[in-house]
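Running this now, will post back.
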Amino acid sequence: MLGAVLQELRAGGFILLPIVGAPVIEETLKPLGVYLLLMRWPRALRNQLYTACLASLAGLMFGLVESAVYVAAYVDEAPDWYPTYRFTLPVAMHATTSFIVGLAINQRLMDWAQGRAPQPRTNRNLYLAAIALHAVFNTIALALEIGGLFD
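Update: finished.
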């Protein structure tokens, strides 16, 4: 597996990681706490809107931590506008996409995960919508970076 990843990186596939890999991984994992609630204490999730709001909070926190790491450690000599950018658009994107995913976290998802029911089409479509939105955001950010806007 590691060899395949390294080969992909050498072939230029590293550009696909932020566009494809990160959205799939992040949108699946950001609401881990909400999945845990659904598994262990399903009555704690009062309704679908409440569940989506909890997932959105997870996305908000993820976005804030990610932005703090970017501003403090990843980007050297960032322009003055960079912290404002990092703590607005990416954070809003993470909260929004997590809200969309939260709309798909319900008992039907749990039944599918446990093999008791087919994959719910609505749940799949919500996940794909969140992943697509995240991928479009990353694609635009990467294009702007390659174009020199973030220099």
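The chain has one domain: 16-146. More later if anyone needs it.
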